[in-house]
From TrEMBL:
Segments forming domain 4Fe-4S ferredoxin-type: 171-200, 206-228
InterPro entries listed in its UniProt record: 4Fe4S_Fe-S-bd (IPR017896), 4Fe4S_Fe_S_CS (IPR017900), EFR1-like (IPR047964), Flavoprotein-like_sf (IPR029039), PSI_iron-sulfur_center (IPR050157)
Record's keyword terms, sorted: 4Fe-4S, Iron, Iron-sulfur, Metal-binding
Protein name: Ferredoxin
Pfam families xref list: Fer4_9
GO MF terms, alphabetically ordered: 4 iron, 4 sulfur cluster binding; metal ion binding
Cofactor(s) the protein needs: [4Fe-4S] cluster
Summary of the function given for this chain in its UniProt record: Ferredoxins are iron-sulfur proteins that transfer electrons in a wide variety of metabolic reactions.
Gene3D superfamilies, per database record: 3.30.70.20, 3.40.50.360
PANTHER family attached to this UniProt entry: PHOTOSYSTEM I IRON-SULFUR CENTER, PHOTOSYSTEM I IRON-SULFUR CENTER-RELATED
Amino acid sequence: MIFYFSGTGNSRWAARRLAELTGDTAIDLARLDKAPDCSGETRIGLVFPVYAWGLPEPVETFARTLPRTGAFTFAVATCGSEAGHALKKLDRLFPLRSSYSLVMPNNYILGADLDDEATARAKIDAAEKELAVIAREVAAAQPVCRVREGSLAALKSSVVHYGFNRFARSTKAFYATNACTGCGRCAKDCPAGTIRLENGRPVWGDKCYQCLRCLHSCPVQAIQYGKGTETKGRYTIEQYRPL
């Protein structure tokens, strides 16, 4: 059983690809309304994106609900380049036999812009090859730690990640331009359930994971965050791989 959390689809694609290669099942943990019964599982995996060198809130919350188990446990953290100590934090909550980081296209456009298309394609092609290796190792229950933590990992995963959770997850800067058609996709897809439509326009509540799914998946690119995203591209894995 492979549980995943995903914003723009990188981790969803990775989880589903792993499930396909290992004959397992991929489950969106954001859609679960209660803790899963894992008592009969021989393998339990988690696939998730790294947020500011740490765990996304839903992943941390979910990991706390998982029981200690005799199953082979593993995790794959998707990231633009570095995972920091995200997997070490997860291991403290849910002990892991194997840990991996998986480099995927950058999508956090509140900082840098997207990778160019050639870089994005190269990262996805390399990730697909790496997933095949991971699948073989997981199927063989082989303990592995192949994680690119990066420099100053402890500092980034503590101080920077704390700052991200404390200050960067505000919804106040989200807005929809006049290009908005009122399709409601943002409200339907928001994993935090914080978006609602009022008079055909999206309105954000207070809770936000900063997954940026609403911003990237808007079919008319109407959703913005402050002024910095207006000139930046949008990314979903479906542009490169079908889901």
